[in-house]
Amino acid sequence: MSLLRDDVRLSGFNNLTKVVSFNLYDFFVARTERERLGYVAWIDEQFSAARITGILREIARIIDAEVLSVSDQDYEPHGASSLVLMSDLGHGKLKHSTNSSVAAHLTKSHLCAHTYPDWTDPKGICSFRVDIDIATCGTIVPLRALDYMFESFENDVVIIDYVVRGFTRDAEGKRVYMDHVVRSIQDFISPEILANYHCEDLVLQNENIWQTKMIRTRLDPGEYFNADLDPTAPENRAALEDVRREMVGIFYGWPG
Asked: Which domains does the chain have, with CATH numbers?
């Protein structure tokens, strides 16, 4: 299904830049040093630079972009980053002439991701944050990858920003500042995913700026504790309430 506007016939020049910032937070209860170290070791293994790069490659495939180069890094002591340069499929091939000179027409785009594990909360509420930025030019609509990003991570709080800048031209040469229709970022997320969250939107339609904030509404206690702990014990029920307060604080930007 095409997401581009059918009332605009584009021609030639196009420097529209579309940027999605996908910021997620996941939480876990780890109150002893052993539990904290185990949690961070699990995060480092599950979300290594190689795994993050694999996720970014799949995002590129979903939005019909071609991967040109990759750079990734695992950090000491913890965390990882990945950067993927890409182009719109069909426009990113380098063409070599007979005299070995190189000409290229690229719709310049990139994907990047950074991970931030935090196990220093005095109450033992560990958090894992991932920031994914998708910056595209041309006709690519990066919002198409949102469902896959939800499927790739555990997401307790999610903040998604979408900004469109630059312009293209229609067949008569007039500037066009938006080549597709966006009412809400929620329209690009499946109803099955949305059913798990309370969502709030910020829409500056005339400025081509959208934001959707999401917070999980039902917490499954089994997802926030080690398998050998009883999540129904009074101290663990209290810890789950601490998790909920952390989520609400991040959602509304309250100080910790």
From this structure: 10-93+103-252 (3.60.90.10)
Q: Assess whether 109 carries a catalytic annotation.
A: yes
CA dihedral 222, 224, 230, 231 (to 10 degrees): -80
Extended beta strands in the chain, E state: 10-14, 17-29, 65-74, 80-88, 95-96, 102-103, 109-118, 125-137, 157-165, 168-170, 175-176, 197-204, 209-216
Omega before residue 231 within 30° of 0, cis: no
- Mention every residue, 6+ apart, whose C-beta is less than 8 A from residue 41: none
Q: Do 88 and 80 touch, CB atoms closer than 8 A? A: no
Local structure of residue 181 (DSSP, 8 states): -
**H or E segment and range at residue 52:** helix 49-62
Kindly report, residue by residue over 129-163, the tens digit of the pLDDT. Answer: 999 999 988 778 899 999 999 999 989 999 999 99
Q: Give pLDDT tens digits for 46-92.
A: 999 999 999 999 999 999 899 999 999 999 888 999 999 998 765 44
Q: C-alpha angle 67/69/75, rounded to 5°? A: 115
Side chain identity, residue 136 = T
CB 196 within 8 A of CB 154: no
Annotated active-site residue in 48, 78, 91, 114: 114
Instruction: Please pick, among 82, 87, 109, 127, the residue that the annotation labels catalytic.
Output: 109
State the Rg of the chain over Cα: 21
